[in-house]
Amino acid sequence: MNLNRINFFLVLIFIANFTFSQKKSMDLEKIKNRLFFRIYDKGSTNFLSENDIPVRNDILGVYSAIGLDHEKGFKLLSQQDIQSMGITEDSLFKISKSNLDNKYKNNLKFNNIKGSEGVEVNYLYDESDIFISSILLTDAIQEISKKHEFGILVGIPLRSMISYSPMNSKNDFEKTLNQIFTFTINAYNDDESPLSLVIFPNYMTKI
Fold first, then answer.
1. How many separate helices (H) and strands (E) can be counted in the chain?
2. How far is CA 82 from each of CA 14, 79, 107, 137, 138, rounded to the nearest angstrom?
């Protein structure tokens, strides 16, 4: 093979690689507004591992995984999917968090019930929305917590539900915990696909 032919093939390879890298970039731009993360409990680790799904474990007992929301459902992204986009996992998690923040900003309408000993339980439930419980990892819970001087306790019994109870004083932890846990365990036991019985105190996100 002569030098001219070698140069010609090198040019073709360069063009192919450049075109492919452009396509990856265009693909990310096209889908990035539909990237969200979904949370799973520790019982899902085998499923996530078997499918090579990268996860974050920013809080005890909960794993977050990135996925693509589309008309036919929600597809979790594998390590290979992420590598093909030419972007880091951290960057994708930040995009997903931003999308969740924007999705629920000023759009959270909690129901309120009065429990025993003056403790109230606020809950948000939407069986058609698979991202509701994921707001545990967004700024929304931080903003709610800031409105209560002594903090809140948060539960995520279902993927389609999040609940919280504010503490009325610094001495109210035990009775508030009892009330939110009672609500959480009842919701957890009544559903075919429960998420977690862990109660999160005044959580501050790391993502």
1. 6, 9
2. 23, 5, 30, 21, 22
Task: State the chain's maximal CA–CA distance in angstroms.
Answer: 89
Residues 6+ positions from 76 with CB-CB distance below 8 Å: 38, 48, 51, 53, 65, 66, 67
> Dihedrals φ, ψ of 27, to 5°?
-60, -45
The model carries a pTM of 0.77
Dihedral over Cα of 176, 144, 120, 37: its sign: negative
Contact by Cβ (8 Å): 177, 196: no
Cβ atoms of 159 and 143 within 8 Å: the answer is: no
The model's pLDDT over 10-33, given as tens digits with 9 standing for 90+, comes to: 333 333 443 334 344 437 778 889
- Give the list of residues 6+ apart from residue 79 with CB closer than 8 angstroms, or none: 52, 53, 54
Mean pLDDT of 74-87: 88
**Three-class DSSP labels, 172-199:** CHHHHHHHHHHHHHHHHHCCCCECCCCE
Place of tokens 């025993």: 116
